[in-house]
Amino acid sequence: MKQPKFRKLPRAIAIDLDGTLLNSSLQISSRNIRALKTCFAANIPVILATARAERGVRRLCVTDVLDKCSLVLSNGAIVKGVPPLSGFHKQQLASGLTRKIVDLVRNYDSNVRITIEIEGLDFGTDWQWDPVSLWETNSATPDMVISIDEAIAREPMKVSVAGVGKNLIGLIEELRKELKDKIAIIPSENNTFLNIVDPMSSKPNALRKLLEPQGISLNEVLAFGDDFPDVDMLKECGISVAMANAFPEVKAVCKYETASNDEDGVAQVLEKLLSTIM
After folding, report:
1. pLDDT for 111-146, tens place per residue?
2. What architecture is domain 12-90+201-277?
3. Distance CA 119, CA 111 (A)
């Protein structure tokens, strides 16, 4: 395990959530919280960069951490800045495209779960959820659920497809064949889950929207990740750190590695950073 050595502070820190900042119980440990608060005190911008929608982030992150972090949501489709950063951006799927995606997915396998994310807490689905599973899986209550048709009409940002344990490589090939460069497909969880967004929606593009107005380049960013949706971000940020639990393909693009998400790997690096510099 090769953790980075620091001679100066990064100008921003970008952290994935699942498998990175969150442990296997989907919690941010007290050690990680302390390390983040030290970064806040040092006025280093912290950005949570996740495939999750805002409702999921708000459920999983304690308020005194979340209120200090800028957010990259839905794989970069939504960007929300908080001081010392600022700005709000959203990247919708092209008009009419969501209906084509839904039809292609349904024709491929009618048993997969489709979720359509829009701005805010509501989302579209045609899957039948009981309240407990709805909360555990989608961080949602029944009043947040709208129909697929209503979600399509409300300028969707992302379509998620869950294979419920099934490998979706064939669906990826079908979507790319039919829709080509009109969409970006970011698989995760060993290709059993797909994030489908506009091609301009990505974690590094979202980071640029937050950082460039402040004169900060991605080369000055410390980034952490573990899964395929993090690869582009880790490639483009100057100091990239893979978690010990990361996929081999993720580790391959990172210069550094830290302990696993269950061993406070993020905090280990941040503690070293701040003890060395301050």
Report:
1. 999 999 998 889 999 888 889 988 988 889 999 999
2. 3-Layer(aba) Sandwich (3.40)
3. 26
